[in-house]
Amino acid sequence: MNDPFLPAADAAMTEHPENLEDTAIDWLVLLHSGQATAAQRLAFQRWRQSSPAHARAADEAQRLWGDLGQTRSAQQYRQDASPAARPRRWWPAVAASVLLALGSVIGWQQWPAWTSDYYTAVGQQQSLTLADGSRVTLNSASALSVAYSANERRVILERGEALFEPAADGQRPFVVQARAEQLHSAAGAFSVRREGDRLTVVVREGQVQFTGEHAPVLLQADQRLQYQAGQPLLAQQSVDAASLTAWQRGKLIFNGRPLGEVIGELERYQQGRILVSDDQLARLAISGVFDLNDPQGSLRTLQQRYPLQITYLPWLAVLH
Q1: What pLDDT does residue 90 have?
Q2: CA-CA distance, 33 to 140, in Å (whole number)?
Q3: Residue 148's pLDDT band (boundaries 50, 70, 90)?
Q4: Which domains does the chain have, with CATH numbers?
Q5: Interior CA angle at 59 toward 56 and 64, to 5°?
Q6: Three-class SS of residue 90?
Q7: Which are the contacts of 97, defined by CB distance < 8 A and separation ≥ 6?
Q8: CA atoms of 273 and 312, how far apart (whole Å)
Q9: Distances from the Cα of 281 to the Cαs of 7, 42, 109, 313, in angstroms?
Q10: Could you tell me if 24 and 15 are in contact, meaning their C-beta atoms sit under 8 angstroms apart?
């Protein structure tokens, strides 16, 4: 099997213990893909029963898979979305997309990253340990400033996304500021994503108090809150925070998610633009574990597994 998102079912599983979670997820992708053979299903059972650690990883992957909320099988979407049935009227959008891609690159180059204490380029991640022992992981194209004082530990998310793991300190609260919003946490782990006026907060461990131009909200572990400045505050959602913060481990995990959403995430980790040619293709359900260290490989695998083609232009990839 040549698909890098799926395990090599015919080879011996020699992964290290820290990779068991990823391997178990890869098995689930295969088993739910509609392409698994009887021999591969038997191989998974042998892998699962080979040790208690394998069994625990398989159970955890199954729980995560269910929490992601698969909607329809990929096979159903492949039958519904025949390439011949889709119009090819995507070329008029190409010129505008190329200009937009170039504008995005120029905008990034002109963005005053030097005014922040820490920043990452597109496709880069960085792990930081702050003066008090708190840990921060910056995601792609992100920037952060630190403003510690005698009374509080404040960090300002200027752009992008970061995962915060505050060190315990009973005297000084840990505060993340993103525009007019503030997030307070004594310990635990949570991510904050800032896209213009839109914020997304995911709590992996502990509790986070979300305050700002709205009533305060207390977020618990495995909850997500999305907020748009000037809009009513939405209720928090129950999620699997480990999967939503898998980018910290260099992974993106999708289970039956629309291609348009998947591409929107992959695009954050590479220069240029990725354009989906039409709405029907954008609704194609995608499942898989994507390696953030190889975004071009992710596109190639999409082309191998799903009914689509990719045309590459300078600063632009078109899926059609």
Answers
A1: 52
A2: 29
A3: very high
A4: 1-68 (no CATH), 74-125+250-320 (3.55.50.30), 135-244 (2.60.120.1440)
A5: 125
A6: coil
A7: 273, 275, 316, 318
A8: 10
A9: 27, 34, 32, 19
A10: no
